[in-house]
From TrEMBL:
Annotated source species: Streptomyces racemochromogenes
InterPro entries in the record: Cyclase_SnoaL-like (IPR009959), NTF2-like_dom_sf (IPR032710)
Pfam family, one: SnoaL
Superkingdom of this protein's organism: Bacteria
Record protein name field: Ester cyclase
């Protein structure tokens, strides 16, 4: 279970605090168990800060606390604070990255199932697409993406196996393996009934809860070789 420690403190010496955190990260490189940190500054109080420190589990957090550098860092941190920092220890019981939900719906409902009503809810009207196998602007907008999805669905019975997904800021990147059986014409190749595979990744940028831009990177040459379009 993911564990988060919340550190609440006052300081007038944040530049020094920032440098202290950088030194700690360097000194504990390869040994610390922290997976993510975030520092927030109170807009209503210029000396009030809150640190969010994430660990894979409470047990991993305890390993980190036992590093000698952690104790030294805490002592130096206290010296930079106005009063003693306060701590809150949280077991994460729900963790949803809302942009991931939109992206997964795009893959599962729009692409795999061909639900174009869902596509209107997932995709921005002015969506911009970047695909190595398409001309610029071919899949832009909802109509462009509908046509592209229809082309792939008409040519193949296929599935996506999402192997890894990373979300940061307004972007979500999904690594996937794709498997398809050619049932219709594709890029001038008549139906073969042949099973083909490829791997790739897609990065979507979201704005206002919808996908605004997409980048598709995948093994197009490998797919074309399997279809007989390129020599082995």
């Amino acid at each position: 279970m993911t564990f988060v420690q919340v550190i609440d403190y006052e300081t007038r010496r944040f530049d020094e605090m920032n440098a202290l955190i950088d030194r700690y990260a360097e000194q504990t490189s390869g040994r610390r168990t922290v997976t993510h940190t975030m520092i927030g500054k109170d807009r209503d109080s210029q000396t009030h800060y809150v640190d969010l420190v994430e660990f894979p589990s409470y047990e991993e957090a305890m390993k980190n606390s036992h590093l000698p550098e952690t104790d030294r860092m805490f002592q130096e941190m206290v010296a930079l604070c106005e009063g003693m920092p306060t701590f809150m220890n949280l077991d994460v019981v729900r963790d949803e990255y809302l942009n991931k939900l939109v992206v997964n719906r795009m893959f599962e409902e729009c692409i795999l199932k061909g639900d174009f009503a869902a596509l209107d809810e997932c995709l921005a009207a002015d969506y911009t697409d970047h695909d190595i196998m398409e001309s610029e602007g071919q899949s832009d907008g909802r109509d462009g993406m509908r046509q592209t999805i229809t082309m792939w669905r008409d040519a193949f019975d296929f599935s996506f196996d999402q192997t890894r997904q990373i979300a940061e800021g307004d972007c979500v990147t999904t690594l996937w393996n794709w498997k398809g059986t050619q049932k219709g014409e594709f890029m001038g190749v008549a139906p073969t009934g042949r099973e083909v595979t490829m791997s790739g990744c897609t990065t979507f940028r979201l704005a206002n809860g919808r996908i605004a831009e997409g980048w598709w990177y995948y093994d197009a040459p490998g797919l074309m070789r399997q279809m007989g379009m390129l020599p082995e």
